[in-house]
Amino acid sequence: MNARVAIFLLAWIGLPPSDAILAQVVNSPRESFPYSQPLELEFTGDEDEIETDRDSFTPATSVVGGGRVVVEAAWSFLDNRAVPETHSLPESIVRWGAIDWLELHLGWNYEVGGAPNSVAGNAGDGDGGDEPFLERESAMLYGLKAALTSQDGWRPQSAVIVQGFTPTSGRETATQVVATYVLGWQSASGWKWDSALRYGTDSAEGDHANLWAPSTVLKIPVGERWAVHGEYFGVFTQGRERAGAIHYFSPGVHYLINPDLEVGIRVGWGLSDEAANFFSNVGLGWRY
Predict the structure, then answer these.
(1) pTM of the predicted model, to two decimals?
(2) Distances in whole angstroms, Cα of residue 155 to Cα of each of 148, 158, 186
(3) CB 59 within 8 A of CB 180
């Protein structure tokens, strides 16, 4: 009879188990206790490698981890179709891990051009523009990112991001709020498939609207330091007299200089008349 079953039966009838039975249980191998260890829910990404949100329009599903800090910065260039080109920099954001599953965000960005920057999450979301003049504006970013689930079979790793963008210069004065839900899976070979849905409020000269931005990206490692990706994302306007729809296809490549320092570039082409002809985004992330 199994020693654990014997102990249970003896305890049930009120008799103490013998020393031999107790010794058998104590000395039994750990493999016989498949559920004795508590389940560990790990929300951070690979502890040996940085994973930035700026790698793609779709943010990462991981968080930085308690006590860790990630600093990200980038420059975006948009070749707009009917208005002057847009430059956006430094798209800076500091991600501080308050606890293992929660990080706090603080950043700032400056834009100049004929249309808003619609290709970088750290700069807010825009639906393009049709006014033939240069607009200069800047905004402060603040918010949080919380891990929701870790990957377990078909259950994806997921997180939620809530950020505010308050103008610090320019014509607009209204604060924009953007909420993002991201989920994804990683294969045994390191391939990652992540998808996200952004919702944001927008205001232009008193005209209020809702912005929806779905995206999906496939990231493939190439060796130990390189990774490439292909992505689709769009920005859709709801609530304005003239609805907008922006679509992009975007490939990218990323390189780990060391486990705590990453550089990358992504480019993209507009798939709709309201999207820019072409964009590029170059940036880096540093973890400490």
Answers:
(1) 0.81
(2) 11, 9, 11
(3) yes
